[in-house]
Amino acid sequence: MKIGIDTFACNSGESAVGVYLMHVLKRIPSFAATYELFGWEYDRFVYSEAAPEMEFIPQCSVNSRTANFFWHVFKYPGFAQKRAWDVCLFPAAGKRLPVRSPCPTIGVLHDMAPWWERKKREYLNTFVRILLPSALRRLDRIIAVSSWLKQELMDIAGIKENKIEVIPNGIDLEAFYPRSRGEESVVLIQPFSFRRPYVLYVSRIEHPVKNHINLIKAFGIFKERTKYPHRLVLAGGDSRGAERVKEAAAASAHRNDIFFTGHFPHASLPELYSGADIVMIPSIYEGFGVGALEAMASGVPVACARAASLPEVAGHAALYFDPRNTEDMADRMVTLTANRDIHRECRRLGLEQAQNYSWDRCVGRTIEVIKKMV
Length: 374
Fold this sequence. Notes:
About 40% of the residues lie in helices and about 15% in strands.
C-alpha cells in the first residue's frame, strides 16, 4: 500500500491543520504502508522529526497561493500518476484540492471557513460557491472533524452522507494537563511575562469570525461590574480584520489590561493555558474548537459561544453565551470568576470531557478509512 500525503496549506505544522498533520504523522504505523509527503521546498525538514522514515518530495517551486492552486489543477494528476499511489490524503481539504486525480482521494475537512467568511465578497463568489463545493464532491471520501461540520458539508456542498466519516480531532494529554500554579503572581513564558489573574482567548486575531471585538466589549463590562484585577490576554497572530480588533482594544477604557501576544508558539500553549483563571471562546464559527479541549485538559474552566461545533465538543463542561450579546458574555465571565463552586465544577467536568478525545483513536480510525479506500 502506497499513500501520498499533501502538506500544502498546512503552514509548516504551525496552524491548527498543521498540528493535526503532525499528530497524524507521529502515530501512523510505518510498517503498514509506504507514505510519501509532498509540499513546499522550504517544508522539506519540517516533518522529519514527526515522520523520519517518510520521503518528502518538494513540488511547486513558485511560492504563491495562486501558483499552488494551478499546480493542483494541472500538475498534480501527472505527479500522482508517476508516484503510483493507491490513495492520496489531503489534510487541508478546505484549502488545497485537485480537480482530478488518478488515484482515490481522501480529504480531511476542518471547517468551511472559506465559504462562510468570503461568500459575500464578489470576486471570490465563483471559487467559494462553485469551485470549492465541486472539488469537495469529487473526493472519494471526506473526513469531517465534527458532526456539525458533516451536516454543513451536506447542506452547503451537497455531499452525500455516506461519503462523510466523522472523526474528531484529539488532544495531546501529555502536553495539556493541570499544572501546579503555586502562589506566583507572574507567569513567565519567554519572551513573555503575564501577570495573573488573566482571562485567555487563543485564536488568530480575525474579525468578525473570531469575535474579538465583542469579547473586548464584554471584558470592559466585566471590569466595570467586578473591579477585579483580571487582564485579557489575546494570543494569536494577525489575520484579516486584525487592525479593527486592535482599534477596539485601544478605544477601551481598560486598554491597559488588554494584551496581544502576536503569534504564540504552540509548544508554550500548555503553560499559557495553565496560568489562566478562565478561558473564553467567543468565536462565531469553529469547525471543531480545539481551544476548548486544550483549556479543559489544562484544568481551566471554559465559557464559549453557543455556536457552530462548540457545544458538540465542549459538551456539558462549559458555560455558554450568545456570541453577539456582550452582556451575556460578561455574565459568564462574572460567574466563572466570582463563583468558585461553579469554577471548580467546570474545571472537574472539563477534565472529564477532554478524556473523550484521543489522537491515537483519531489516527486509528483515519487509517481504517484509508484501508477501505485501497
